[in-house]
């Protein structure tokens, strides 16, 4: 099992399950085995498998919001 500070890249999350005995999330990483975690943060984009797991397949379909563009400007110096 990965330690808290491990960063693992180039692994596709294929399924997420809930281990009812441990209360943890079990993340399947394709052919690379699985990992258990207390917390899963879904940052996997518009076709998020994490969202699919949480909301179910029937609530998964992304829908066009009608926005074509959104943006803004700010003074770069306000960063510093
Ligand atoms: C052509 C184009 C132009 C855009 N231009 C702008 C712009 O000018 N300004 C702007 O603000 N926004 C723009 N956007 C939108 C912006 O790219 C997205 O809103 C933003 O990238 C979303 O970030 P995210 O982190 O949610 O997802 P993403 O950037 O999509 O990142 C998701 C990551 O998760 C990974 N991933 C997905 N599924 C899995 C999985 N099962 N297992 C493991 N990893 C997985 C992906 O490989 C990816 O690295 C543009 C989008 C497109 C397509």
Automatic annotation (TrEMBL):
Native organism: Aspergillus fumigatiaffinis
GO MF, one example: oxidoreductase activity
InterPro entries linked: FAD-bd, FAD/NAD-bd_sf
Coiled coil residues, start to end: none
Superkingdom: Eukaryota
Ranges where the FAD-binding domain occurs: 4-54
Keywords: FAD, Flavoprotein, Oxidoreductase
Full protein name: FAD-binding domain-containing protein
A Pfam family hit: FAD_binding_3
